[in-house]
Amino acid sequence: MAPPAFAYPTLQANQLPCAAQIARKGRRKDELPVKKSGQSFVYNHTLAKTLVEYASAVYMTDLTALYTWTCSRCNDLTQGFEMRSLIVDVENCLQAFVGVAHNLNSIVVAIRGTQENSVQNWIKDLIWKQLDLSYPNMPNAKVHSGFFSSYNNTILRLAITSAVRKARKSYGNINVIVTGHSMGGAMASFCALDLAPRVGNAAFASYFAKYVPNTIRVTHGHDIVPHLPPYFSFLPQLTYHHFPREVWVHDSEGNTTEQICDNSGEDPKCCRCISMFSLSIQDHFTYLGVDMEADDWSTCRIIGAQSVKKFQKELTSNIIMAKHNVDVSIVEPSKQTDLSSFR
């Protein structure tokens, strides 16, 4: 599971488990949460919490309430959100949505994380998982095949990019924010590059920083996920590496501190300073006071109502609820998508 993350370059992305990331291309004064001036750095707490709330909402199992934005988590800082497309890969238990946040003047993409009942096995696998996949068209860059395949080889990639294109046709070339928690955070990194547990090595982190320069990863307390897979500073190209910049949220002398970390992506004074013997799974399920888990993990079930059937297409075990027509081609993940319009 990756921590929360947000990105802003014309694109904004964020992940939510131990870290949050924000990436975006193109900025507006009223919506930019991260500013750089030399070595200075300004962190916007309200924006970060707003994106955490979106990453929390995508965990909801009642698709009708989620699609109509009437769910129990569809309020507070996310009120007024316009849902454009709700995407569910039933077979792989993946879920995401695309919509417009008018108060941010941005398109928001939220990707769901891992089921709570499989977290411990997922973490155990990450401890031993090695970099095993070369990132396309990027020399020496390697990533976690499971994270990349969940995004690239399922319905998510093509359905999300299709929905973003259609939203931009309606609202113009506005910013795109991608947010996700846990595994959803890892997939948000790949999505941000298209339009962190650690998802790749140092070469990948450098590539990401180049194309998604204004990025934040929010990590929480002793959350174990930002420490997985393990990081070995003496093997920079053979180990996983977070991209910058980390904001470590932790308790300090009885107060909650949001500590701005350096631009290395692996600041030893931030969450990396936590001993491996005091890491916590519980810290993974709450970020900035927001629950980051599903409302019901009894099954990977979905709930829908007859009233929304007109928005629903079911194709090869995938469900898409959208206000626009859904192209059948988007459920063919083997096809490569031309994403040049996002760059």
Automatic annotation (TrEMBL):
This is Lipase-like. GO terms for biological process: lipid metabolic process. It comes from the Eukaryota. Residues 108-196 form the Fungal lipase-type domain. It comes from Panicum miliaceum (Proso millet). Pfam families: Lipase_3.
